[in-house]
Amino acid sequence: MELNTLISKIGGIGKKREYVLEEHGINTIEDLLYYFPRRHLDRSVVTKIRNLKKAKTASIIAKVEAFGEKPIRNKKLFQVIVTDGTGLLTLTWFNGTYYIRKLFKVGEYLAIHGKVDWYRGPTITHPEFDKISFDNNYLEKGGIIPIYPLTSELKAVGIEQRMIRKIIEKLLFELSLNIPEIFSKDILEKEKLISLNKALRYIHFPKTFPQLEGSKKRLKFDEHFFLQLFMAYRKSRLKTVKANAFIPSGNCFNTLVGKLDFELTDAQKRVVEEAHVDLKKNIPMNRLLQGDVGSGKTIVSILVSALTVDSSFQVALMAPTEILAQQHFNSFKMLFDNSNTKCSLLTGKMRKKERELIIGELSNGNISIIIGTHALIQKDVVFNKLGLVIIDEQHRFGVEQRSLLLKKGNHPHFLAMTATPIPRTLSITYHGDMDLSIIDELPKIRVPIITKIVDPTRLPNVYDFIKSEINLGRQCMIIYPLVEESEKSDLAAAESAYLKLSKTIFSEFNVGLIHGQMKKDQKENVMKEFSENIINIMVATTVIEVGIDIPNATVMLVEHAERFGLTQLHQLRGRVGRGSFKSYCILTRRKINHNSLKRLKIMENTNDGFLIADEDLKMRGPGEFFGTRQSGFFKFKIASMINDGKIIRRAREIAFKMINEDQSLKSPKNKMVSKYFKKYYKTQINQLTIS
């Protein structure tokens, strides 16, 4: 029997079950073998109910004796009584009783995990549990028991834990199943990896925990390796493309450097030189510029743009919001105006005549640098000689959007920028095909921001402090998050606070309001007034997260700070402390729990964006790290970008070495690697186009 054998060929499944399994992506024997247990129950560490102790976390295997609802005050709780023959244990739920009551049957076995409390005997509130559904013989045998993820759809057609185990056990141990090895013997030996045959057996039915750990290591390596192989393949493809090698005259670049009223940091100088080296090559630069909030990425992008202009090519910079695009335009225009270099701004809300004029000048080459939003990728936007594409906060754009802009030139050089510090493991996974430049040094002018967590009861003191700062000539920002999952409530919270603060608490000062629903002209006027210190206090939604650079702003007050992720809080905090004045970030906590308090404490204790990013990744996971799921890259079955740092680095090293030595994977020793690569990354390979 082969791995690609359809599950319909396995006896005992039936048409209904076959259909539901296919709906869950299980079509073949291979799919079934890669349907990994979500955890393993170690019978050797199971605690008897009579031995349970208060405040201790325990695992128990017990049988359901009874269950039902119990009224308490104006609510209902749901309780299940279980026994293992040594005593009774009560499981309690306070929410979702209607749903939970459908999950239990008297006589079924549960694997239970949770913290023990005591009320007329041992209790566990909101425990983790799995239906084990094995017979008494299996229960008594002990050992390590696989617990599989089962949806309600699978359960509805009778696919329970016992059935899954029996089917996979039959495939692995009774049938003559051929599981071919992917890697050469030397890779297995060097990386101390067990065979794929053993790995698939041990992940389901390990006899010892070393066997289980060995299988996890091997299967994790496989997932990381093929993703890194795709990155290596994509990077190698890019090197086959011919780009324009820049020969900068130095005129514009030298003029700009001479006009700077500050000294570049060593990190900024290093990154500019890295880009300069890339631009002189006849293959497209493909570089990610990563720097913490306030590290000076904008000036680096300006200087790299100057090198491009000096080579008689055009630059396109795309930003995710109009506010950020405007901010970049102001920075670029201020420096380029005196060097006979024309910069223009293009956004979606421009008047038709103004837009047509800009597009015309862009196509005839009169505009050297264009800065804009998604408007840049419209079909009627044509460049005369596009040589460099810069994308800011690039994770906010999809692959297709980036590709559309790149296609407007003849293989232009590409520079992506992000102010979101990216953990090393995530960077080499998601950006593994890019060269990385890191600005790991803040300008000397920057003073570390003091961050404090406060209860709402202390807000009067905070308001007094804000007043004292304003009286010194400084400015303040007050941020309101989403109260509910809607833009309307976000806006409502900010507007309500604005009215209250402007008419009562801060009536002697000029209070402004900015949010995403305002018209462009309104936002621009508010921003202008804030930058000129006409507005003393800015009340805002998270639209202020990026794009506002006010050196005079020294206080950031974040309401409902517990609702934000760490990375977003760090971005918000970076809106103050951009000058030489001591600055403060005050986080108001309202509905707090252990995790949110832990998150806020991290903000209070460090200004290190990379440390914050690592913690954010651990708490939220890679799929949500950037605020949106990145399609297809994080759908690992067993691998983890949080915990697998060492495996990722080794997988990357081997994958890149393999592509460097055998770009088309045609070597006999790479035959199986090539087969699996084309199978699992077929869609991505077919979509791979080098612009």
Descriptive labels:
6-stranded parallel sheet, 691 residues, Rossmann fold, 7-stranded parallel sheet, alpha/beta, OB fold (Dihydrolipoamide Acetyltransferase, E2P), 21 strands
Main β-sheet: number of strands, strand sense, barrel status? 7 strands, parallel
Strand content: 15-25%
Overall pLDDT: 85
Low-pLDDT stretches:
136-140, 483-488, 627-632
Principal-axis shape equals globular
Helix content: 25-40%
State the end-to-end distance.
Answer: 44 Å
What oligomeric state is this?
single chain
CATH architecture of the domain at 450-606: 3-Layer(aba) Sandwich
CATH homologous group name of the domain at 450-606? P-loop containing nucleotide triphosphate hydrolases
CATH class descriptor name of the domain at 450-606: Alpha Beta
Strand numbers in spatial order across the main sheet: 11-12-10-13-14-9-15
Question: Could you explain the architecture of this structure?
Answer:
The protein is built from 25 helices and 21 strands. It has 691 residues and is an alpha/beta fold. Among the domains are: 109 residues, Nucleic acid-binding proteins (OB fold (Dihydrolipoamide Acetyltransferase, E2P)); 157 residues, P-loop containing nucleotide triphosphate hydrolases (Rossmann fold), CATH 3.40.50. It has a seven-stranded parallel β-sheet, sandwiched between helices. Strands 16-21-20-17-19-18 form a six-stranded parallel β-sheet, sandwiched between helices. The chain has a five-stranded mixed β-barrel with strand order 2-3-4-6-5. α21 runs antiparallel to α22.
